[in-house]
Design a protein that fits this description.
- With 319 residues, this protein is α+β, with helices and mostly antiparallel strands.
- It has 14 helices and six strands.
- The strands form two sheets. Strands 3-4-5-6 form a four-stranded antiparallel β-sheet.
- The radius of gyration is 21 Å and the shape is flat.
- The two termini are 32 Å apart.
């Protein structure tokens, strides 16, 4: 407990933040590559989607396997729908390129919005921002996870604006700032579930990450292991009714039309321990466009995956 009274070393935290973000970017690249090749098999799509959430509570990267990533890189979708309207006041997705070019001249990511703190930051202040945002991100995960991604992005980025202004004293904002804080929090949240090993700096003496016990380890034992498997599937018989119930407005943001969908299926997936104990079940709804399958994130509920390892009382509260 005495360690909690020591002054927090934001410089070391910044180092850890960027190590974490680098690791997340590797994961994003891996999942993007993987999503292109598993998309031909609906069961593989379902397993990868569920496993990404179950293993580290990572609904953010699980979207690589969904309709939201169908027509463009998921990062570009996030920029256009949630980041650019903040960075470039007046921006609207799909707006005229010349008009957007004009907006960019006075965007919040231009030098005129940078304080000396922003210009001279060695990563310490960015690390402080990420640290302050972590608790807020954790609350979002406890109250619905990533199913309502619009709520998560909107709430998180609005809070980030406040926190960053408190730390840096300016209104500067960029997609790099937003991705760095968010992806550091995604990774840190995952570590809170799985636990961490002690991490040393390059000098092999300075500790930048202590060993910790995660929620999953507490619930299932230090050497727990999750296995994600498909238990069955069934095709959606009334495809026309299914497509008619989809939100055209939401599909438009994905660059997808309901007419593009040629089939739909429900895949039943379980997450279990090595002893066979099932810790979560998830019904994954998928649609087929061309020869590829995508998780219909508008119809798939992942609540049970975010309640893995929680005490019963806490899990009930999180519903």
């Amino acid at each position: 407990m005495a360690k909690e009274n020591k002054k927090f070393n934001y410089g070391l935290y910044a180092v850890l933040v960027f190590i974490i973000v680098a690791a997340v970017l590797v994961l994003i690249t891996s999942l993007t590559f993987k999503s292109k090749y598993v998309a031909f098999d609906k069961e593989k799509v379902a397993v990868n989607f569920v496993d990404t959430v179950a293993q580290k509570g990572d609904g953010y990267n699980a979207y690589k396997f969904t309709l939201a990533s169908k027509s463009e890189k998921y990062g570009d979708f996030v920029r256009q729908q949630f980041m650019y309207p903040i960075i470039y006041p007046g921006y609207e997705a799909g707006m005229d390129k010349d008009a957007f070019k004009e907006l960019k001249k006075t965007g919040l990511d231009t030098d005129e919005h940078k304080s000396d703190a922003t210009k001279n930051d060695d990563g310490s202040l960015a690390g402080e921002v990420a640290k302050r945002m972590l608790g807020y991100y954790e609350e979002l995960m406890k109250n619905g996870g990533w199913d309502d991604y619009s709520k998560v992005y909107t709430s998180y980025f609005n809070k980030l604006i406040e926190v960053r202004k408190e730390v840096f004293g300016d209104d500067y904002m960029s997609d790099e700032v937003m991705f760095t804080a968010l992806e550091a929090n995604v990774a840190s949240y995952g570590n809170s579930l799985t636990g961490t090993k002690k991490t040393l700096a390059a000098d092999e003496k300075t500790v930048i990450q202590e060993e910790s016990t995660g929620l999953y380890q507490t619930a299932f034992g230090k050497n727990y292991k999750f296995t994600t498997t498909v238990k069955g599937s069934e095709d959606v018989k009334d495809l026309d009714a299914y497509k008619a119930a989809l939100s055209r407005e939401v599909l438009d943001t994905y660059g997808v039309s309901a007419d593009d969908i040629t089939a739909a299926s429900k895949v039943f997936v379980e997450v279990a321990l090595e002893n066979g104990e099932v810790v979560a079940s998830c019904e994954v709804t998928e649609v087929k466009i061309g020869s590829k399958w995508y998780v219909d994130n508008t119809s798939t509920n992942t609540d049970a995956l975010y309640r893995i390892g929680m005490p019963i009382e806490a899990a009930d509260t999180a519903k």
